[in-house]
Input
Amino acid sequence: MAKSTSGLSRKRMGEMYRTMLRIRRFEETADDMYMAGKVVGGVHVSIGQEACSAGVCAALREDDAVLTTHRGHGHSIAKGTRLPEMLAELMGKVTGLCRSKGGSMHIADVSKGHYGAHSIVGANMPMAAGIGLAYQLEGKDRVAVVFFGDGASNNGAFHEAMNLCAIWKLPVVFFCENNQYAVSVPAEYSTSVDDISVRSKGYDAPGLTVDGMDVAAVYEASREAVAHARRGLGPSLVEAKTYRFFGHSRGDPHYGMYRTKEEWEGWKGRDPLIVCEKMLKMTAKQKKAHADAVETEIREAIEFAENSPEPEESVALEDIFA
Amino acid sequence: MRTISYSAAINEALHEEMERDEKVFLMGEDVALSAISPATAGLGDRFGHERVRNTPISELGFTGAAVGAAMAGYRPVLDMRRIDFMMLAIDPIANQAAKLRYMLGGQVSVPLVIRAPEGGYSQNGPTHSQCLEAWFIQVPGLRVIVPSDPADVKGLLKSAIREDNPVLFVEYRALYSLEGPVPEGDHTEPIGKAAVKREGADITLIGIGSQARGCLEAAELLAGEGVDAEVVDPRTINPLDVEGLAASVRKTGRCVVAEEGHKSGGVGAEIAASVQEAAFNSLKAPISRVAALDVPVPVHTKLEAIVLPSTEKIVAAAKKALS
Ligand SMILES: Cc1ncc(C[n+]2csc(CCOP(=O)(O)OP(=O)(O)O)c2C)c(N)n1
Ligand SMILES: [Mg+2]
Output
């Protein structure tokens, strides 16, 4: 498993730390709002997996694309999705990114190159291939990254999309967050290989497994995969070993049902925020500066969402056809 | 009779059929862990993980595998979690399971049950709320069952598992916690027979799945206004018991059909057409349909309520048919 080297600038590391903290605080807020009965529909948080979102998106340009999953708040935030409109979507407000019709599982901010969270497992990967195809046809050196889980790597959509990208040399990075479980089913049981990245071999594409709790390692692997795609060399498969600290979705306990407390605590000890703080040897003062800035942003998002109106009834009948 | 929930009745039918026939086995995502769904709780512990088998998120793969196992003499029961996810497995269902016996000139049978929980009223949005049974009545060779209460879900699931043909067994998520009397032991219900759920003389309310409940509630409200509504549940929509439905309409002369799926090309359209063919001369008013509007089901509670059918919408349609 690839670890980070120490070649990254403090500035870059600091930016990724900030992104991770923004994700963490956004999702904690979303969870609080859910508990307070203010969220419409379900929420799947990625707390514990923030290094994946932050590390990958730091390697992207603004005009690159991402596609994500039901667990997509982190990727959305890291790609530049607006927090107030995102929270408003979760809270069923008409100012939400999807006008309250898509909810948490369908967050999208196309103006930021975010082509959507997709709640049907695997569905995003062939679409990523298509976005890569569009970029290739246009002769642009843009790249599409598709995020997916260990569970999704067992779906035919993954294999078909990988093959398409490989034969057509499409500029797509497949980024698998192996958080070890698909709902209750362990990857160890459901997946034919220990390292999902080896599946790239079947498609003659580069594959690499990295420590998904180490944002620098994720960044370095992503930078390489993105450069490979940008040069027209086709897809790569990066697998990050990671863990969700929360249950699959609300109502699923952190541990006890299908994960042991010991396992959970082991991963908790490698919280990507703490790993990063240590790498940066951050002082309490530096941490507070980050925390204060993020709190202000979160407060503004809450204010915006709380004060936004509910949708008019007519919204239900709009946006069917272009 | 003791009272149990719709999901407990599913669970009981699965326990009894797996007990009765060792060729029956269950596959699906997260079926082995009891805590995930009340419908499958306890089965993994009772029958072991050979027969209660977790699958990867490979709907196409495991559905195709179930078709193969069924041809080879087993009786697989699939748990799709949601009918929306079953869309990834349409080929083995519609192109293979439903046609194999016919295409191979009767050499094989495919005794497969696909349990497909479905439906909205839960703010799960466009891809997690659909009711898709209408798609499948277009597939000859496939039985489609739509039970609306605990006794029927038990009796029909047991019949489905014993049936030698592929069955799409639709379950309504909105009904999972519905309680009702359910016979203990070997209670089966016939596939292809409608049931009168409430007798009445003034109007026939035909309800599919979750909307059979809606029709019963509507009948209560109508009774308060002096209207005596009959509620009929087709229970299976392939085969459809046209005679059973038409008999009621001949008696009342008026009919509303309610379903949770979309209106255009829906089950209600098929039923309305079939009933008017069979009972045209008895009709005193056009048959009207209550269904989801022809837009995706949005997440927002208020918008979802606009799109989906409701008791109030059934009452309104009934009043119109009576006026
Ligand atoms: C095609 C399909 N099948 C099943 C589901 C139900 N489902 C939602 S998330 C999930 C698990 C996904 O696991 P993984 O890909 O590892 O992502 P994670 O939840 O761990 O982030 C399942 C089975 C679905 N949404 N789509
Ligand atoms: Mg996973």
User: Anything to note?
Assistant: The domain at 10-110+141-305 of chain A is CATH 3.40.50.970 (Rossmann fold).
